[in-house]
Amino acid sequence: MMLFTAYNITYLLSQALGVFAVYKLMKAFFEKRIVRKITEVIFYIIHYIVTASVYLFINIPIVNFIVTLLSYFLLAFLYQSSVKKKAFVSLVVFVFGICIEMLIVTLTGY
């Protein structure tokens, strides 16, 4: 059973902010969404639940990476573009997130 420690609560809150950042990055790369706004919001909430659950309950780094990258790729399908651009943007957003995490770790020493 997973305990709600201060670290886990902080992770969940920062992950929510991270989902918003992913949303803004996707909007920067893609001009037009192909689904209704409510559908877009629901899929971002699902992304949050899935990635947070994988982290909290499985917490194997390679699994976390795969699930996160796959979910970014699936989120890209909410927008009008080629599959090649969707894959590229997913990878860019993923690498951007890793760089931000590395910066935070470096600055906090944790």
Secondary-structure topology with pairs:
Layout: H1 6-29, H2 37-58, H3 61-76, H4 83-108
Helix pairs in contact: 1-2, 1-4, 2-3, 3-4
Describe the structure.
The protein has 110 residues and is mainly alpha-helical. It has one domain (6-108). The chain is 80% helix and 0% strand. Helix 3 crosses helix 4. It is globular, with a radius of gyration of 14 Å. The model has no long low-confidence stretch (mean pLDDT 94).
Q: How many DSSP helices? A: 4
Structural class: mainly alpha
Number of strands: 0
Detail the poorly predicted runs.
Answer: none
- Proportion in helices: over 70%
Q: How does the overall form come out from the CA principal axes?
A: globular
The separation of the N and C termini measures 24 Å
Q: Determine the strand fraction and express it as a percent band.
A: under 5%
Give Rg in angstroms.
Answer: 14 Å
Mean pLDDT: 94
Instruction: Estimate nothing, just give the exact number of structural domains.
Output: 1
Largest sheet geometry: none
Chain oligomer state: single chain
SSE topology string: HHHH
